[in-house]
Design a protein that fits this description.
With 361 residues, the chain is mainly β. Helix content is 8%, strand content 31%. It has a single domain (28-349), classed as Pectate Lyase C-like. InterPro entries: Pectin_lyas_fold, Pectin_lyase_fold/virulence, Polysaccharide_Lyase_1.
Amino acid sequence: MYQLKRVVISLVALGLPSVSALAFPGAVGFGSIATGGTTPFVVTSLADSGTGTFRDAVSESGRNITFAVSGYIVLESPVSLSSDITINGQTAPSPGIGVMGREVSASSKTNIIIRGLRMRQGSLETDDGKSAFNMGDASNIILDHCSVAYGVFDSVDAVGAVNVTVSNSIIALPIGQQFGAHLETGPATWYANLWVSAHNRQPLTKANTQYINNVVYNYQAGYTVANTGGVFSHDIINNYFITGPSTTSPSDDYFQIDDNQSAFASGNLLDSNKDGVLNGVAANTIGSAIILSKPWASTSLSIATLTAAEAYASVIANVGASPRDEVDTFIVSTVESLGKVGSIITNQDSTGLSNNGYGTL
């Protein structure tokens, strides 16, 4: 299970900014410098607001938040996080903790650590310009072992974000625009995530980026830049792209990447035959990007400890909040069909899951 204690090491040798500690043991990438909060606060209520609620917990900076309750928190309005907080969703009693219905926002905030939290926006959202998780103009943010589903505008919106890591997380089944994630500015690290059934943006990244050991399933467009003016570098290592029923062009695993971009691509695989067997072939041609002979980021090769095939097995076994709930079990089982099932949806209810598609937590 996740450890809450922080370890003190030097990050200079890793090519990251010099700080005294990782966000948590095993944290990787540019968001691992997030310091979070230290003042204990326990969430004791599933209510939307009031004493002891999640909204109350995140209303002041400096807090290290744990949970004495489990289940869904139904948000009646968007919730804004404060800077310098740690959200330890993994501390909730089984079956875990989640928020549903409205946006969770870290916009313009800094030093936030979020682990083991389910964020499920869905059709209860009344503003189609909101995303499941928004960290626009934020800095030093890490999401780890989270589950983001049913995003409306984007699943993860990170325009203007600096020093971001999203790791070991599920980003799946967006509705509305049907987009995975949109990140600009950076640098950013996407590590060992499971991306499922999005039209595009898995992610869209207008930033210097590490993209390592991810699994992308049933995409219409996968790793995307879509910017003919921006000049960025991309380390794309040991990822697995797997087509599904909604995939119209397997070659859109990399999408709208032009010669303004530079890419180091190694060990990536594409399984395009939808035959129910994991049997991908090499997929290291990144549009018309300039080919780099070595990674642009000094830590990329040390992070990429798994081959694409090993990453698939590890992601299937470990990704997302623990224990897996009804929604994440459905998502993972869809991927395990290896091309046989899956669809890009417009409403979570079409999944057929309980609680109008949100699942029972």
